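Q: What residues go here?
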């Protein structure tokens, strides 16, 4: 089967949507499918050539929004097109192509409600209200990482109109890449961490597109723990233009001794950072966080998770960890402290459960088995 995937961002840009497409495409290729990914070309990627990725120059670009008129000319050669929403600028191009090629199957993954700050957020909200239903309704199948998320999202009314087209299918994790390992002492030394103290880990983008990740809530919780004389080290992995402000917040709270920033790390190194952790935290503040791929990476690494009680996110986190009240730094601090006061054997039970859930429910092999079934509904 020849399949096109269209997505607004793709590795090496760090983001959940691009990582989902990368992993899905890799698993599909293992099964003999021809998969081409279409995504905007961004500057300074340091990539020489990629046979299976088409990085197209946008006619317009703003943040992760980009208009790729070139895709319309290329899609007719595919057996099936899989579009990843939201992708402002290109969504209407795909809709126009589908209107002209009604016999060609179109599958859409609804990743999240479009979110933004200030006037940008208002534009996204208006777009979702007046245009998103047009692209979603034209699809032959719409996939959501969880129906729990859609039921409280801006797409709920669209799903209600065509329930038979919608299905829940979670994202997956590479359980061979992310797995329990011994902690690397060299990483403790590199980031001036104490091997004898527990480590709390955060992994996520620190750019404006990921403003909703909730790092300020995490820092407030760490300040509360500091005042209670609970010694926990925290390592934050990720980069972006907001990172400097977070570093200033650490200095302001006097947390520099126990809070370290690793910056962006190489993909090859990332699994070993998860292995440093005793507990993983995802403190996102609203539904811009619809799933949380990093939760799966932590769980597959044998690391329990603590996450905001958000639709979608909670469907993952409740399997392999603990939820706390969204935007509540006091509840986050209490949840973290309760975990670290567990007995060692209780902590090990949590770790075993996290890994077991990743293996039995979220491995990419199992997820793509189900995705192939969807594709086969339309392409014989």
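A:
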């Amino acid at each position: 089967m020849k399949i096109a995937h269209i997505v607004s961002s793709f590795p090496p840009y760090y983001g959940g949507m691009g990582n989902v497409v990368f992993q899905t495409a890799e698993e599909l290729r293992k099964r003999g499918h021809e998969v081409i990914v279409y995504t905007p070309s961004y500057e300074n990627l340091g990539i020489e050539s990629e046979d299976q990725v088409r990085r197209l120059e946008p006619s317009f670009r703003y943040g992760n929004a980009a208009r790729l008129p070139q895709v319309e000319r290329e899609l007719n050669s595919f057996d099936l097109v899989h579009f990843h929403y939201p992708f402002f600028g290109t969504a209407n191009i795909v809709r126009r192509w589908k209107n002209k090629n009604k016999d060609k199957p179109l599958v859409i993954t609804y990743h999240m409600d479009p979110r933004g700050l200030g006037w940008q957020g208002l534009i996204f909200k208006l777009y979702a209200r007046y245009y998103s239903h047009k692209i979603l309704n034209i699809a032959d199948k719409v996939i959501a990482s969880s129906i729990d998320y859609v039921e409280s999202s801006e797409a709920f009314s669209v799903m209600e109109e065509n329930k038979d087209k919608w299905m829940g299918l979670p994202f997956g994790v590479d359980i061979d890449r992310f797995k329990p390992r011994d902690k690397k002492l060299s990483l403790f030394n590199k980031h001036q961490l104490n091997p004898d103290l527990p480590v709390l880990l955060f992994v996520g983008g620190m750019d404006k597109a990921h403003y909703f990740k909730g790092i300020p809530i995490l820092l407030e919780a760490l300040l509360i723990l500091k005042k209670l004389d609970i010694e926990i080290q925290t390592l934050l992995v990720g980069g972006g233009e907001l990172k400097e402000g977070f570093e200033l917040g650490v200095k302001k709270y006097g947390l520099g001794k126990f809070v370290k920033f690793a910056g962006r790390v190489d993909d090859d190194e990332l699994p070993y950072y998860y292995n440093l952790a005793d507990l993983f935290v995802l403190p996102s503040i609203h539904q811009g966080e619809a799933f949380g791929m990093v939760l799966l990476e932590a769980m597959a690494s044998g690391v329990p998770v603590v996450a905001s009680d958000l639709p979608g996110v909670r469907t993952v986190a409740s399997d392999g960890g603990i939820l706390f009240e969204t935007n509540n730094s006091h509840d986050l601090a209490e949840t973290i402290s309760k975990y670290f006061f567990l007995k060692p054997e209780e902590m090990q039970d949590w770790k075993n459960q996290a890994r077991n859930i990743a293996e039995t429910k979220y491995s990419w092999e199992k997820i793509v088995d189900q995705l192939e079934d969807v594709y086969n509904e339309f392409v014989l």
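A: Context that may help when evaluating the design: The first strand starts at residue 2 and ends at 6. The chain has a mean pLDDT of 92.
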